[in-house]
Write a structure and sequence with these properties.
With 920 residues, the protein is mainly alpha-helical. Among the domains are: 4-153, P-loop containing nucleotide triphosphate hydrolases (Rossmann fold, 3-Layer(aba) Sandwich), CATH 3.40.50.300; 167-269, no CATH class; 752-845, no CATH class; 851-919, Winged helix-like DNA-binding domain superfamily/Winged helix DNA-binding domain (Arc Repressor Mutant, subunit A). It has 47 helices and 7 strands. Strands 2-3-4-1-5 form a 5-stranded parallel sheet, with helices on both faces. The chain has a two-stranded antiparallel sheet with strand order 6-7. Helix 29 (558-575) runs parallel beside helix 31 and helix 32 (617-633) runs antiparallel to helix 33 (637-653). The longest helix is centred in the C-terminal third of the chain and has 19 residues, at 901-919.
Length: 920
Amino acid sequence: MVPLSERIAVPFVGREAELAAIIGMMADCRVLTVTGGGGAGKTRLAMEAVRRANAAEQRDTFVVPLARTASPELLVSAVLEEVEGRQEPGRDPMESLAARLTGRPVRLVLDDCEHLAVELAVVLRELLVRCAELRVLATSRQPLALEEETVAQLSRMSLPDPDAPSALLSVVESEAGRLFIASAVTRAAEFAISPATAGAIARICRELDGVPLAITLAAARIVDQSPEEIAAGLTDHRLRLSSDGSPPGTQAPAHQRSLRASQAWSYALLDDADQVLFRRLGVLSVGTVEDTGAVCLPSLDAVEVQARLLSLSERGLITAEPDPLLGVTYEMLGTVREYALDLLAAEEEEDELRDRHLAVFGELADEADSLLNNPLGRRALHLHLPDLRAALSRAIERNVPAALAMCEGLAHYWFAADRFAEGRASCAHALAVADHCDAAAQALVLWCSALLAAAVEDYAEAHVLATRGLALAERSGNERALGLCLQITSFALGTVEPQRAAENGLRAVELLRDAGNAHDLGHALMTLASIEALRDRFDSFALLRAEFMSIPEARDDQWLRILLDLHAAWAYLTQGEPRAALTQADHLLEMVGGEVSMRAGLARAHRLHAMARSGQASDALTEGMAALEEARAAGSVVVVLALEQALAIAELAVGDLDSAGRRAEQHADTPALHSAATWRELLARIALERADTAAAYAHAAAIRDVGQHTGSQRQAAFAKYVEGVAALQDGDLPGAADCLHEALSAQDQCGCRRDAADTLEALGHLAVRRGDMERAGRLHAASAAGRRALGCVRVPPDGPELHEQRARVEADLGIEAAAQARAEGERLALQQAIAYAQRSRGRRQRALAGLASLTPTEMEAARLAASGLSNPEIASRMFISRDTVKVHLSHVYAKLGVTSRTQLGGLLADADARAVITDT
């Protein structure tokens, strides 16, 4: 963001000696603070010094305007945002900031620091220790009191010499005179100094004590006044006004008196309507015509408001800046705003204006969810963030119910913009004064705070906050608040207690479905779907996603949709559909554009993972290493870990077992269960490639433990697969057969097609060891064909063992018979190949009808239905949604040929009776 004073179209003139000195000091000190009074030109001088220094020095420079950062708690987040970093899960903002600045030559230009000097000094002390190449240039009305600090105190600009023989020469030889001329030309291109006007210009510069802002304000009057008239007006106001409104005779510093005189004179020249707008604009940080009208001039139409704004802009009192989405925005310099607020207080209008400001920006907060769904809305929220902050602070002081409503309204904005720390602090401040407010309103703010805590992986705090919210929501009887608090407990527990997370998530979905708020229901469906994806329950995920997509308010909510689609990409990868995952990831990257965020980083990691799985591992490594460096520079912990995982898979895909293993070993003990299982899977595959069966069994046990905790059938099946291959390598053929067939059956049921292809290959190896070469040839070919159909490659790539196995088949059968076996296997679709492998166990395939045709899940649903439980009760008992229950029961009725629960109960009772007789 370019500081406002840099956007004033006045060329840099004067202060050549100070500029050269500051550039020299910048090269020799780590912290340089340019000090001076308000309007002294600190920012312009600092920015010109940086511009010139950067031409000779390669250093990343970030400008951080702090004038509108009112709260010390927001200081670090404000700096982090300007250096293009984000607060990441697992880190507080300071950690993310230090990571972003470490290991690179960076210069921070911190503008308007005086109101945060103490807090900023604390932040800089830590950064200077941790970031050896960091350099700081600050502007402030007072030093920062750092040991490493060098202070450059600005003197006033040189003034025209009153004793010079030529007034014209004295003006052009003085810094103040040249600034007046340059400023006047920007307002009136035809302006030129002459011997006749030089004396008046010299008096203007001396009256204003060489204060740059005062001079530019005076020069702005050149469009409708002569230099003589300007000089006369300034002299009059300097005589009548003190700098701070104190009684005559009170002495303030000369530059303050001069600046106040210039401001007061500029204000006095405005007509009454422009004066009203000028002083009222002090409460707005940045405004459009619409905002200005709503807050400052509610009785005027947009055309009249725009005309008033243009009038102030032409007089240099505000700046007009084109915005590509919002049209023109208007802003005051900080020093001018201070004067406007003084006038507003003197007119006793401030309370009324601030209350109206709160009402306008409270409405904006209430609309934040819908604004997030389009670029114009997101731009409006970002532009008005300082005003939203100011309105929320006002509400916490004067209108606590409004503060609670604003926190709830901004919840998703804070989440989507990665403003986790800011949102948590705001919620905490609001809740601290809300003891006597409505319980449901408090519960909703606790939901917001818990959501933001969970987003940075502070799951313990998230659970505490959500539990408090649940208690308040239950007391209030508000189903929406209760549903949202259940939803966030589900979110918080998702990676550590997925079973409980699924229970709470399902209850939240049911409550919010009944409450009738489509957006809230979409949020709950997204949360439950993500948990089901992490538990590898893909059928349930698909049903929940389908319901989400059937709700326009959810489907059209971009940030919710992105979160859901990230899990969809993961589901495609896990099931063995890398092409679909790649398409999904690329679409996500299009949606997020070039933003630096957690969701953009995760989409990139899914893309790299899909590339590695689909045969583009070398490209994935090249792209991934660059992405990893960017993520590390941004301090993005979660994205770094996701990219590390994608890179490990790519390394395994090209056969670099050592590098993949080193990455996996660093992260295998993470408390996030699903991530831990994925790292263990990598290590298990590496152990199997190396025939290290002891390590393989250990990894399988760890994966099984995770699967038991998460309820993931896939993880349990993969553990069986690993044990089966390890048993085969140890020569335990019966044990291998049992494990591999159990794994294949589970993989078939849960739709893990890539895993099933791997198991078919292992069963081919088992067939070789048993001497059944035709079967081996068919299974090897069917496995390879299944991967091709899925768009997958073998990870790791074909090794010596597989080539040796194929050679043995060919040697035993002969070239022609081996080719025939391979051709037969290649003609089998993956499902047919699974059925072929299962038949070889001497058991018939699952029947197409009757009880024997039911899957275990269908049988469980059938027995619960026959026992008299309703669909919601079955859903709760099985931890699935009502829609999933309906699907399972429709399959049961079709397979058994029944049409009612009574018929179903009778059929099951008869089967049980027959089983008892048989056992007897």
